[in-house]
Specification:
Blueprint (H helix, E strand, L loop, with lengths): L14 E4 L8 H13 L4 E7 L7 H9 L3 E7 L10 H11 L3 E4 L16 H17 L3 E7 L7 H14 L10 E7 L16 H13 L5 E7 L15 H17 L5 E6 L28 H9 L1
Parallel strand pairs: 1-2, 1-8, 2-3, 3-4, 4-5, 5-6, 6-7, 7-8
Helix pairs in contact: 1-2, 3-4, 4-5, 5-6, 7-8
Length: about 300
């Protein structure tokens, strides 16, 4: 599949957003946050679907597509267990509604995502390959990777080993209609290239590996990212304050609008809302752009003004 044959939203500016971190929201929440996404100029939204379940996200998908936003469906599963149900049928259903991109499994280089607590490239491939085959049969485009930056197993090493594993199993062809899901969180590092390949410019390290293995570019879509107040992953640099968070988000989205590479499709901030959209996991409360008390992060205003 040629790079320019992959679907893009009209007026694509590379501006993505991760949706509420639940597999279903009320219609009122969908209406509210689709409208807020439009005000921020968002053109890509990654949302969670409960495995192969059909129906729970029909309203969301119809609203996103109607708003000119490209939906990216992550097939949610707690660990790297095979996704139960009719994946092909689910994909066919949502392709008919306007979804093209489907991401099975998430952050397979983290211990917490494993049934036994040990990251394994082979386990990832054992589950990803049949899911990707079902996605292709259903008419969708399967997402690979979705690795955590750094991770319990280094993400760059994991990606290379996973691609080598696809080759040894004779399954590299699944990437002929595939794409790479990327989590390029910035932490407290400025928006600049880093020797350790981490940070916003993670896509360049991943593209280098993809070209070295496949001999061509593959779409890279950021499905998670962002800069959060209080982060200090690198103790040699100051912790992120409110002004820095706004500045870095603006720089990242401006790069995507004005300078991104043709294979670099989107950068997506985690996450548009948590409690305000029906989420209950307290880990995500501080990262949500819209708060349950009616306030919003200043990043929202910055994106509304970015154009």
């Amino acid at each position: 599949m040629a790079l320019d044959a992959y679907p893009h939203p009209n007026g694509d500016n590379g501006r993505g957003m991760h949706w509420v971190p639940t597999t279903h929201q009320s219609k009122s929440a969908v209406d509210r946050f689709v409208a807020e996404a439009q005000k921020m100029g968002v053109k890509w939204v990654t949302f969670l679907n409960d495995g192969a379940t059909v129906g729970q996200n029909d309203y969301l998908v119809s609203k996103l597509v109607g708003a000119g936003i490209e939906p990216i469906m992550r097939l949610y599963s707690a660990t790297l267990e095979p996704i139960q149900g009719d994946v092909e049928g689910m994909v066919r259903h949502y392709v008919g509604m306007g979804v093209h991109y489907f991401q099975p499994y998430n952050e397979p280089n983290l211990s917490v995502e494993q049934p036994d607590g040990v990251p394994s490239v082979d386990r990832y491939l054992n589950t990803w390959i049949p899911a990707a085959q079902a996605i292709v049969r259903g008419g969708g485009l399967p997402g690979f990777g979705s690795l955590a930056p750094g991770g319990d197993m280094n993400d760059v090493d994991f990606l290379q080993r996973a691609l080598d594993g696809l080759r040894s199993r004779g399954q590299l062809g699944l990437l002929d209609r595939g794409w790479l899901s990327m989590h390029n969180y910035t932490h407290n590092h400025p928006i600049q290239e880093r020797a350790d390949t981490d940070g916003f410019f993670k896509f360049r390290a991943y593209n280098h590996i993809l070209r070295g293995t496949l001999g061509r570019d593959v779409p890279i879509i950021g499905t998670e990212g962002g800069t959060f107040i209080g982060e200090q992953e690198d103790p040699a640099l100051p912790a992120v304050d409110a002004g820095t968070a706004v500045s870095m988000a603006t720089q990242a989205y401006r790069y995507m609008r004005d300078q991104r590479e043709p294979w670099n499709f989107a950068y997506s901030f985690w996450t548009i809302a948590n409690e305000a959209g029906g989420g209950t996991d307290p880990r995500f409360a501080q990262q949500a752009l819209f708060k349950p008390d009616g306030t919003a992060s200043p990043i929202v205003t910055a994106l509304q003004s970015l154009g």
